[in-house]
Amino acid sequence: MKGAPKVGAVLAADVVVQRSGTYRLDAALRAEPGEVVAIMGPSGAGKSTLLGAIAGVVRLSAGTVQIGGEIVASPRRSVPPSRRGAVLLGQEPRLFPHMSARENVAFGLRARGARKEDAGSAADDWLWRVGLPGAGDHRPSELSGGQQQRVAVARALAVEPRVLLLDEPLTSLDSETAGEIRAMISEQLAQSRATVIMVTHDVIDATAMAHRLVVIEAGRVTQEGAVRDVLRSPATRFVASIAGVNRIEGRAAGGHWHTADAVPRVVIAGTASGASAEGMAESVAESIADGERLAAVFRPGAVRLEALPDASWTGALRLAADTPPAPGEWLARVVRLEQNLGGVRVHTAAPPVAVDIPVDEAAALRLATGTIVRLHVAAADVRLQPIPAASPPVEAAP
Protein backbone atom coordinates (compact mmCIF):
# COMPACT_ATOMS: atom_id res chain seq x y z
CA MET A 1 0.00 0.00 0.00
CA LYS A 2 1.47 3.35 -1.00
CA GLY A 3 2.87 5.28 1.98
CA ALA A 4 2.35 2.48 4.48
CA PRO A 5 5.32 1.03 6.38
CA LYS A 6 6.78 -1.73 4.23
CA VAL A 7 7.72 -3.89 7.19
CA GLY A 8 8.04 -3.47 10.92
CA ALA A 9 11.18 -4.38 12.81
CA VAL A 10 11.89 -6.59 15.77
CA LEU A 11 12.41 -4.33 18.77
CA ALA A 12 14.52 -5.62 21.66
CA ALA A 13 15.12 -3.09 24.41
CA ASP A 14 16.93 -3.82 27.67
CA VAL A 15 16.94 -0.38 29.21
CA VAL A 16 18.58 0.91 32.39
CA VAL A 17 18.35 4.63 33.10
CA GLN A 18 19.76 5.89 36.40
CA ARG A 19 19.20 9.50 37.37
CA SER A 20 20.15 11.57 40.37
CA GLY A 21 18.47 10.50 43.56
CA THR A 22 16.66 7.19 43.72
CA TYR A 23 15.09 7.14 40.24
CA ARG A 24 15.97 4.04 38.26
CA LEU A 25 14.32 2.47 35.23
CA ASP A 26 15.30 -1.14 34.64
CA ALA A 27 12.95 -2.66 32.07
CA ALA A 28 13.11 -5.10 29.18
CA LEU A 29 10.74 -4.92 26.24
CA ARG A 30 10.45 -6.98 23.05
CA ALA A 31 8.04 -6.58 20.15
CA GLU A 32 7.72 -8.52 16.92
CA PRO A 33 7.22 -6.95 13.47
CA GLY A 34 3.68 -5.62 13.15
CA GLU A 35 2.89 -6.15 16.84
CA VAL A 36 1.13 -3.44 18.87
CA VAL A 37 2.26 -3.39 22.50
CA ALA A 38 0.54 -1.15 25.05
CA ILE A 39 2.44 0.10 28.09
CA MET A 40 0.56 1.18 31.19
CA GLY A 41 1.63 2.21 34.66
CA PRO A 42 1.26 4.89 37.33
CA SER A 43 2.60 8.41 36.77
CA GLY A 44 6.37 8.49 37.15
CA ALA A 45 6.76 4.75 36.57
CA GLY A 46 9.16 5.22 33.66
CA LYS A 47 6.91 4.69 30.64
CA SER A 48 7.90 7.86 28.75
CA THR A 49 11.54 7.39 29.74
CA LEU A 50 11.48 3.95 28.11
CA LEU A 51 10.06 5.37 24.88
CA GLY A 52 12.61 8.18 24.99
CA ALA A 53 15.44 5.65 25.29
CA ILE A 54 14.12 3.74 22.26
CA ALA A 55 13.66 6.93 20.25
CA GLY A 56 17.13 8.24 21.12
CA VAL A 57 16.26 11.26 23.26
CA VAL A 58 17.18 9.58 26.59
CA ARG A 59 20.69 8.20 27.14
CA LEU A 60 21.14 4.71 28.59
CA SER A 61 23.05 4.10 31.81
CA ALA A 62 23.29 0.40 30.90
CA GLY A 63 21.71 -2.07 28.49
CA THR A 64 20.98 -1.84 24.77
CA VAL A 65 18.25 -0.99 22.29
CA GLN A 66 18.11 -3.05 19.11
CA ILE A 67 15.89 -2.28 16.13
CA GLY A 68 15.87 -4.85 13.35
CA GLY A 69 18.89 -6.58 14.89
CA GLU A 70 21.02 -3.40 14.90
CA ILE A 71 22.20 -1.95 18.20
CA VAL A 72 21.06 1.67 18.04
CA ALA A 73 21.72 2.55 21.69
CA SER A 74 24.08 1.54 24.46
CA PRO A 75 26.08 3.51 27.03
CA ARG A 76 28.88 3.84 24.43
CA ARG A 77 26.85 4.08 21.22
CA SER A 78 23.88 6.16 20.17
CA VAL A 79 22.56 6.22 16.61
CA PRO A 80 20.92 9.61 15.91
CA PRO A 81 17.11 9.51 16.27
CA SER A 82 16.62 10.35 12.59
CA ARG A 83 18.54 7.23 11.54
CA ARG A 84 16.88 4.69 13.86
CA GLY A 85 13.74 4.08 11.83
CA ALA A 86 11.69 4.95 14.91
CA VAL A 87 9.23 7.84 15.18
CA LEU A 88 7.96 9.24 18.48
CA LEU A 89 4.51 10.84 18.62
CA GLY A 90 3.67 12.48 21.94
CA GLN A 91 0.79 14.20 23.68
CA GLU A 92 1.34 17.46 21.78
CA PRO A 93 1.32 17.53 17.95
CA ARG A 94 4.46 19.74 17.84
CA LEU A 95 3.73 20.90 14.31
CA PHE A 96 5.88 23.60 12.71
CA PRO A 97 3.70 26.73 13.10
CA HIS A 98 5.09 28.47 10.00
CA MET A 99 4.31 25.48 7.74
CA SER A 100 1.04 24.34 6.25
CA ALA A 101 -0.41 20.94 7.12
CA ARG A 102 0.88 19.60 3.80
CA GLU A 103 4.37 20.96 4.45
CA ASN A 104 4.40 19.49 7.97
CA VAL A 105 3.56 16.01 6.68
CA ALA A 106 6.02 16.35 3.79
CA PHE A 107 8.87 17.54 6.02
CA GLY A 108 10.09 14.09 7.06
CA LEU A 109 9.85 12.80 3.50
CA ARG A 110 11.89 15.73 2.20
CA ALA A 111 14.49 15.14 4.94
CA ARG A 112 14.82 11.57 3.65
CA GLY A 113 15.53 12.74 0.10
CA ALA A 114 12.09 12.76 -1.54
CA ARG A 115 11.49 15.24 -4.35
CA LYS A 116 9.29 18.20 -3.38
CA GLU A 117 6.48 17.18 -5.75
CA ASP A 118 6.51 13.56 -4.58
CA ALA A 119 6.57 14.57 -0.92
CA GLY A 120 3.67 16.96 -1.45
CA SER A 121 1.63 14.31 -3.24
CA ALA A 122 2.32 11.76 -0.49
CA ALA A 123 1.39 14.35 2.15
CA ASP A 124 -1.97 14.99 0.48
CA ASP A 125 -2.57 11.24 0.36
CA TRP A 126 -1.89 10.91 4.08
CA LEU A 127 -4.05 13.92 4.97
CA TRP A 128 -6.87 12.23 3.08
CA ARG A 129 -6.30 8.99 5.00
CA VAL A 130 -6.52 10.72 8.38
CA GLY A 131 -9.71 12.53 7.43
CA LEU A 132 -8.35 15.95 6.45
CA PRO A 133 -8.59 15.99 2.63
CA GLY A 134 -9.04 19.77 2.38
CA ALA A 135 -6.64 20.92 5.08
CA GLY A 136 -3.38 20.84 3.16
CA ASP A 137 -3.00 24.62 2.89
CA HIS A 138 -4.03 25.38 6.48
CA ARG A 139 -1.48 26.26 9.12
CA PRO A 140 -1.68 24.69 12.60
CA SER A 141 -3.22 27.85 14.09
CA GLU A 142 -6.17 27.38 11.75
CA LEU A 143 -6.80 23.79 12.89
CA SER A 144 -8.48 22.42 16.02
CA GLY A 145 -6.51 20.35 18.54
CA GLY A 146 -7.95 17.15 17.11
CA GLN A 147 -7.12 18.18 13.56
CA GLN A 148 -3.56 19.04 14.55
CA GLN A 149 -3.13 15.60 16.10
CA ARG A 150 -4.41 14.02 12.89
CA VAL A 151 -1.74 15.92 10.97
CA ALA A 152 0.86 14.71 13.48
CA VAL A 153 -0.26 11.11 12.96
CA ALA A 154 -0.03 11.56 9.18
CA ARG A 155 3.47 13.02 9.53
CA ALA A 156 4.58 10.11 11.71
CA LEU A 157 3.25 7.40 9.38
CA ALA A 158 4.26 9.08 6.13
CA VAL A 159 7.96 8.32 6.70
CA GLU A 160 7.25 4.58 6.92
CA PRO A 161 8.73 4.03 10.39
CA ARG A 162 9.90 0.55 11.30
CA VAL A 163 8.92 1.31 14.90
CA LEU A 164 6.17 3.76 15.86
CA LEU A 165 6.25 5.07 19.44
CA LEU A 166 3.01 6.58 20.73
CA ASP A 167 3.33 8.46 24.05
CA GLU A 168 -0.26 9.12 25.11
CA PRO A 169 -1.21 10.99 21.92
CA LEU A 170 -4.88 11.19 22.97
CA THR A 171 -4.40 12.61 26.48
CA SER A 172 -4.91 16.28 25.63
CA LEU A 173 -8.10 15.66 23.61
CA ASP A 174 -11.70 15.62 24.80
CA SER A 175 -13.32 12.19 25.02
CA GLU A 176 -15.29 12.50 21.75
CA THR A 177 -12.29 13.68 19.75
CA ALA A 178 -10.05 11.09 21.42
CA GLY A 179 -12.47 8.37 20.34
CA GLU A 180 -12.37 9.59 16.74
CA ILE A 181 -8.57 9.78 16.69
CA ARG A 182 -8.30 6.34 18.33
CA ALA A 183 -10.50 4.84 15.61
CA MET A 184 -8.44 6.59 12.94
CA ILE A 185 -5.11 5.39 14.37
CA SER A 186 -6.49 1.85 14.71
CA GLU A 187 -7.56 1.87 11.08
CA GLN A 188 -4.17 3.07 9.86
CA LEU A 189 -2.25 0.61 12.03
CA ALA A 190 -4.42 -2.25 10.78
CA GLN A 191 -3.31 -1.42 7.24
CA SER A 192 0.35 -1.13 8.12
CA ARG A 193 2.99 -3.56 9.34
CA ALA A 194 4.77 -1.16 11.67
CA THR A 195 5.85 -2.31 15.11
CA VAL A 196 4.02 -0.09 17.59
CA ILE A 197 4.78 0.69 21.24
CA MET A 198 1.96 2.69 22.79
CA VAL A 199 2.06 4.33 26.22
CA THR A 200 -1.42 5.03 27.50
CA HIS A 201 -3.33 5.68 30.71
CA ASP A 202 -6.63 4.56 29.15
CA VAL A 203 -7.34 0.83 29.22
CA ILE A 204 -9.63 1.31 26.20
CA ASP A 205 -6.54 2.03 24.09
CA ALA A 206 -5.06 -1.28 25.17
CA THR A 207 -8.20 -3.34 24.62
CA ALA A 208 -9.04 -1.71 21.28
CA MET A 209 -5.60 -1.47 19.69
CA ALA A 210 -2.98 -3.68 21.35
CA HIS A 211 -1.99 -7.33 21.06
CA ARG A 212 -0.03 -7.33 24.33
CA LEU A 213 0.03 -5.27 27.50
CA VAL A 214 3.14 -4.45 29.51
CA VAL A 215 2.77 -2.88 32.96
CA ILE A 216 5.59 -0.79 34.44
CA GLU A 217 5.57 0.25 38.09
CA ALA A 218 8.36 2.02 39.96
CA GLY A 219 10.75 1.57 37.06
CA ARG A 220 10.29 -2.17 36.47
CA VAL A 221 7.99 -4.47 34.53
CA THR A 222 5.51 -6.02 36.97
CA GLN A 223 3.30 -7.88 34.48
CA GLU A 224 3.05 -8.57 30.76
CA GLY A 225 1.07 -10.78 28.42
CA ALA A 226 -1.97 -10.80 26.16
CA VAL A 227 -4.25 -7.91 27.08
CA ARG A 228 -7.10 -10.18 28.14
CA ASP A 229 -4.86 -12.37 30.28
CA VAL A 230 -3.30 -9.45 32.13
CA LEU A 231 -6.64 -7.82 32.87
CA ARG A 232 -8.22 -11.09 33.95
CA SER A 233 -5.40 -12.03 36.33
CA PRO A 234 -3.96 -8.76 37.73
CA ALA A 235 -0.64 -9.26 39.50
CA THR A 236 -0.64 -5.93 41.35
CA ARG A 237 -3.16 -3.53 42.82
CA PHE A 238 -2.48 -1.05 40.00
CA VAL A 239 -3.35 -3.63 37.34
CA ALA A 240 -6.48 -4.51 39.31
CA SER A 241 -7.49 -0.84 39.29
CA ILE A 242 -7.26 -0.54 35.49
CA ALA A 243 -9.08 -3.89 35.14
CA GLY A 244 -11.87 -2.53 37.33
CA VAL A 245 -11.59 -5.14 40.08
CA ASN A 246 -10.43 -5.36 43.68
CA ARG A 247 -7.29 -7.30 44.51
CA ILE A 248 -6.17 -8.11 48.05
CA GLU A 249 -3.14 -10.20 48.89
CA GLY A 250 -3.28 -12.69 51.72
CA ARG A 251 -2.58 -16.27 52.77
CA ALA A 252 -4.34 -19.58 53.12
CA ALA A 253 -4.92 -20.97 56.60
CA GLY A 254 -7.23 -23.71 57.83
CA GLY A 255 -8.97 -24.09 54.48
CA HIS A 256 -9.74 -20.36 54.29
CA TRP A 257 -8.09 -17.29 52.78
CA HIS A 258 -7.36 -14.26 54.95
CA THR A 259 -5.53 -10.98 54.66
CA ALA A 260 -1.96 -11.12 55.83
CA ASP A 261 -1.77 -8.02 57.98
CA ALA A 262 -4.92 -5.91 57.56
CA VAL A 263 -6.83 -4.86 60.66
CA PRO A 264 -9.49 -6.03 61.00
CA ARG A 265 -8.67 -9.31 59.24
CA VAL A 266 -10.70 -10.25 56.17
CA VAL A 267 -11.57 -13.94 55.87
CA ILE A 268 -13.10 -15.55 52.79
CA ALA A 269 -14.34 -19.12 52.72
CA GLY A 270 -12.02 -21.62 51.04
CA THR A 271 -12.52 -23.07 47.58
CA ALA A 272 -14.57 -25.95 48.92
CA SER A 273 -17.14 -23.35 50.03
CA GLY A 274 -17.40 -21.62 46.69
CA ALA A 275 -14.41 -19.37 45.96
CA SER A 276 -12.82 -20.24 42.63
CA ALA A 277 -9.10 -20.80 42.37
CA GLU A 278 -7.52 -19.17 39.34
CA GLY A 279 -4.88 -21.29 37.64
CA MET A 280 -5.16 -24.24 40.04
CA ALA A 281 -6.88 -27.59 39.61
CA GLU A 282 -9.88 -27.97 41.92
CA SER A 283 -8.33 -30.93 43.74
CA VAL A 284 -5.19 -28.89 44.40
CA ALA A 285 -7.11 -25.76 45.33
CA GLU A 286 -9.05 -27.57 48.02
CA SER A 287 -5.84 -28.68 49.69
CA ILE A 288 -3.88 -25.43 49.54
CA ALA A 289 -1.08 -25.49 52.08
CA ASP A 290 -1.35 -23.18 55.07
CA GLY A 291 0.70 -20.06 54.54
CA GLU A 292 0.50 -20.13 50.73
CA ARG A 293 0.24 -16.60 49.31
CA LEU A 294 -2.92 -15.96 47.28
CA ALA A 295 -4.64 -12.88 45.93
CA ALA A 296 -8.42 -12.51 46.22
CA VAL A 297 -9.94 -10.79 43.16
CA PHE A 298 -13.56 -9.60 43.03
CA ARG A 299 -15.66 -6.95 41.31
CA PRO A 300 -16.71 -3.74 43.12
CA GLY A 301 -20.30 -4.56 42.19
CA ALA A 302 -20.10 -7.90 44.01
CA VAL A 303 -19.64 -6.24 47.41
CA ARG A 304 -22.62 -5.49 49.65
CA LEU A 305 -22.32 -2.50 51.98
CA GLU A 306 -24.04 -1.63 55.25
CA ALA A 307 -23.35 1.69 56.98
CA LEU A 308 -22.69 1.94 60.73
CA PRO A 309 -23.04 5.74 61.10
CA ASP A 310 -22.74 5.82 64.88
CA ALA A 311 -19.66 3.61 65.10
CA SER A 312 -16.13 4.86 65.66
CA TRP A 313 -13.08 3.15 64.16
CA THR A 314 -11.82 2.24 67.62
CA GLY A 315 -15.21 0.78 68.44
CA ALA A 316 -15.25 -1.11 65.14
CA LEU A 317 -11.90 -2.71 65.90
CA ARG A 318 -13.12 -3.69 69.37
CA LEU A 319 -16.30 -5.15 67.87
CA ALA A 320 -14.30 -7.14 65.31
CA ALA A 321 -12.06 -8.50 68.05
CA ASP A 322 -14.94 -9.45 70.38
CA THR A 323 -17.21 -10.88 67.66
CA PRO A 324 -15.26 -12.03 64.61
CA PRO A 325 -17.29 -11.42 61.43
CA ALA A 326 -18.44 -14.33 59.32
CA PRO A 327 -16.24 -15.33 56.35
CA GLY A 328 -16.60 -12.79 53.56
CA GLU A 329 -17.65 -10.04 55.96
CA TRP A 330 -15.51 -7.29 57.48
CA LEU A 331 -15.60 -3.75 58.86
CA ALA A 332 -13.96 -0.88 57.01
CA ARG A 333 -13.74 2.90 56.95
CA VAL A 334 -14.79 5.07 53.99
CA VAL A 335 -11.87 7.14 52.71
CA ARG A 336 -13.21 8.49 49.42
CA LEU A 337 -16.42 8.76 47.39
CA GLU A 338 -16.47 9.12 43.60
CA GLN A 339 -19.28 9.54 41.12
CA ASN A 340 -19.43 6.50 38.90
CA LEU A 341 -21.46 5.81 35.78
CA GLY A 342 -24.95 5.34 37.16
CA GLY A 343 -23.88 5.30 40.78
CA VAL A 344 -21.25 5.97 43.42
CA ARG A 345 -17.92 4.21 43.96
CA VAL A 346 -17.08 3.93 47.64
CA HIS A 347 -13.40 3.50 48.52
CA THR A 348 -12.57 1.97 51.88
CA ALA A 349 -9.33 1.32 53.75
CA ALA A 350 -7.92 -1.57 55.77
CA PRO A 351 -7.74 -3.19 53.28
CA PRO A 352 -8.32 -0.87 50.27
CA VAL A 353 -11.53 -1.99 48.54
CA ALA A 354 -13.82 -0.29 46.01
CA VAL A 355 -17.59 -0.82 46.23
CA ASP A 356 -20.15 0.26 43.60
CA ILE A 357 -23.62 1.22 44.83
CA PRO A 358 -26.56 3.13 43.29
CA VAL A 359 -26.79 6.88 43.93
CA ASP A 360 -30.03 6.60 45.88
CA GLU A 361 -28.51 3.95 48.13
CA ALA A 362 -25.52 6.19 48.85
CA ALA A 363 -27.89 9.02 49.75
CA ALA A 364 -30.02 6.79 51.99
CA LEU A 365 -26.93 5.52 53.81
CA ARG A 366 -25.62 9.09 54.27
CA LEU A 367 -22.11 7.95 53.46
CA ALA A 368 -19.23 10.35 54.04
CA THR A 369 -15.48 10.18 54.53
CA GLY A 370 -14.85 8.44 57.83
CA THR A 371 -18.13 6.48 57.90
CA ILE A 372 -17.69 2.95 59.27
CA VAL A 373 -19.25 0.29 57.04
CA ARG A 374 -19.72 -3.46 57.06
CA LEU A 375 -18.78 -5.12 53.77
CA HIS A 376 -19.74 -8.56 52.53
CA VAL A 377 -18.68 -10.52 49.46
CA ALA A 378 -19.85 -14.02 48.69
CA ALA A 379 -17.18 -16.67 48.22
CA ALA A 380 -18.69 -17.55 44.84
CA ASP A 381 -17.84 -14.01 43.62
CA VAL A 382 -14.15 -14.30 44.55
CA ARG A 383 -11.31 -15.66 42.41
CA LEU A 384 -8.18 -16.77 44.23
CA GLN A 385 -4.96 -16.34 42.27
CA PRO A 386 -1.58 -17.81 43.25
CA ILE A 387 1.14 -15.22 43.85
CA PRO A 388 4.50 -16.24 42.33
CA ALA A 389 7.25 -16.78 44.88
CA ALA A 390 9.35 -14.09 43.20
CA SER A 391 6.68 -11.44 43.74
CA PRO A 392 7.23 -8.85 46.48
CA PRO A 393 5.25 -9.15 49.72
CA VAL A 394 1.82 -7.63 50.24
CA GLU A 395 1.93 -4.24 48.56
CA ALA A 396 1.01 -0.87 49.98
CA ALA A 397 -1.81 1.17 48.53
CA PRO A 398 -0.76 3.20 45.48
From TrEMBL:
Species in which this protein is naturally found: Microbacterium rhizomatis
Residues in ABC transporter domain copies: 10-243
Residue ranges of the TM segments: none
InterPro entries reported for this sequence: AAA+_ATPase, ABC_SmlMolc_Importer, ABC_transporter-like_ATP-bd, ABC_transporter-like_CS, P-loop_NTPase
Keyword Nucleotide-binding attached: yes
Protein keywords: ATP-binding, Nucleotide-binding, Transport
PANTHER family: SPERMIDINE/PUTRESCINE IMPORT ATP-BINDING PROTEIN POTA (PTHR42781), SPERMIDINE_PUTRESCINE IMPORT ATP-BINDING PROTEIN POTA (PTHR42781:SF4)
Protein name: ABC transporter ATP-binding protein
GO terms assigned for molecular function: ATP binding; ATP hydrolysis activity
Pfam families linked to this entry: ABC_tran (PF00005)
